[in-house]
Amino acid sequence: MTHLVEDQLDIDTYLELRKAVNFRPLTRDQARRALDNSLYTLVAYKNGQAVGMGRIVGDGAVICYVQDLIIRPEMQGEGIGGLILDTLKEFVINTGFPGTSMMFDLMCAKGREAFYQKHGFIARPTAELGPGMIQYLDL
Question: What is the pLDDT of residue 136?
Answer without folding.
Answer: 85
